[in-house]
Amino acid sequence: MVIWFSSQCVMLAAQIDSRALKQILNKDQTDQAPGLVVGLWQNGVPQFMHNSGLSNLEHGIKANPETPFHLSFLSQQFIEYSIMQLAKEGKLDRKAPVTHYLDWLPQVFEKVQIRHLLNHSSGLPDYWALRVLAGWGYDDPMSTAQAVEMISRIHQLNQQPGEKTLYANTNPFLLAQVIEALSGQSIGEYLDSQIFTPLGMESASVITDHTALVKNKALAYTHDGEAWNAAFSHHADVGPWGVYASIEDLRLWLDHLAQLPLSAQAELWKTQTYQGNEYRYRVGFYNGYRGYIGTFGDGYHIAILSADLYLNSWNQAMEIMELLNPGGDSQQTAETPPESTKTIAFDPNLYIGDYWDPKEFHSRSIRYERDTLYYVTTDGWRSALEATAKHEFKILQSATGRKVWFNPAGLEPEMAVGYS
């Protein structure tokens, strides 16, 4: 039996430094902050559990292991798994064009195969970027029918399928549509009958109507510097997102993934090598929700769910994993201080301005306020930047450790966003 205490951590393995883990999780967290729930397991056995904050700030309801959180981009792992299962059952050919399953798609989609959608090499424009170009606001409601209508108007690819990887929300959305077409069920019905119910994921569900109720769910919040504000999700276009689940649900899901053949596991995880160690992970960030699931070391699984827009679940997970799985390069010496302690001088005037990304079809701005450089998105989200090298800055509030690079010497100043 697993015992959870609100606003506390429960240690179930003596070899883990509970104080260090508590420090990682509590440094930016209070009992009155949006909910945060964390689970750490080894070979299916609970090792460390934590829950703090509130799932509803207005009513003072505490977050707990059964609290459903919006999984944001973590939802895509369930979509990809379902595609793998349909292929295993012989109902789907990964090398078949997506038009074989979705006859409403334009002719240009005939070049795009299912495997291209899975690895984001389809070359398709991101339909969310097309929303912005069409004049939609970031928080304007979008239904599945509206997404279908928008995608059906795409008549040009950004690149040839298979040429290179370029993330687009269009890819997982179309995969969800393929699942519905082949199963004859809605995506919610399919995931419930094939995954949630068989695994006992009692709090898991799919929302295809942004007005639908989710029992006991955690509400997401942003902070304007003075007070917390609700962050409402108005999107019901399932595929890139749409799944709600609790930490207890994710425990069952991670246990199931660990039983899959290694080849299947490799397809469902992203990998990162840090300090000589390899980590497999998925990360989610969307409209106030933050999430991380991963596997590392000797059978460890970790899951972090938060309803705080500014909580960096990626950094928390990395700190926890490094504590339990230190690499050979993790010890710093006095002669080589960590990069974060170095001060790098820069001229903010080289970077201030508005930038257009011709591939992702969106604009971003760089502002300079109170001696700090800020990265600002069109919907108002912003993060301070920290110089890490010449013309290179870390986005401090990024849930995935993103950086920005500038080329101020060109005919027009350029900015790129990505990972080092």
Folded structure, characterized:
This protein has 420 residues and is of the alpha+beta class. Helix content is 24%, strand content 26%. The protein has 10 helices and 21 strands. It has a 7-stranded antiparallel β-sheet, with helices on both faces. A 7-stranded antiparallel β-sheet has the order 15-16-17-18-19-20-21. The protein has a 3-stranded antiparallel β-sheet with strand order 6-10-7. Helix 2 packs across helix 6. The longest helix is centred in the N-terminal third of the chain and has 14 residues. The N terminus is likely disordered.
Layout of secondary structure:
Layout: E1 8-11, H1 18-26, E2 36-42, E3 45-52, E4 54-56, E5 61-62, E6 69-70, H2 75-88, H3 114-118, H4 127-133, H5 144-151, H6 170-183, H7 187-199, E7 205-206, E8 220-223, E9 228-231, E10 243-245, H8 247-258, H9 262-268, E11 270-274, E12 277-286, E13 289-296, E14 300-306, H10 313-324, E15 353-357, E16 362-369, E17 372-377, E18 382-389, E19 392-395, E20 403-407, E21 414-418
Helix pairs in contact: 1-10, 2-6
Indicate the radius of gyration in whole angstroms: 22 Å
| Overall helicity | 10-25%
> What structural class is derived from the secondary structure elements?
alpha+beta
Uncertain regions spanning at least 5 consecutive residues: 1-14, 328-341
Count of DSSP strands:
21
Strand order of the largest sheet: 1-3-2-14-13-12-11
Please, how many helices? 10
* Biggest sheet overview: 7 strands, antiparallel
Q: How far apart lie the N and C ends?
A: 42 Å
Mean pLDDT: 84
Strand percentage, roughly?
A: 25-35%
What overall geometry do the principal axes of the alpha carbons give?
globular
